[in-house]
Amino acid sequence: VIVDKNKKTIVFVGDSFTAGNGIEYVKDRYSDLVRVALKDYNVLNAGVSGFSTRDEIGVLKNLKVKPDVIVWQYFFNDFEGIGPPDQQSEMFLTPMADLGLASRFYS
Question: N or C: where does the chain have the smaller number of CB atoms within 10 Å of the terminal CB?
Answer without folding.
Answer: C
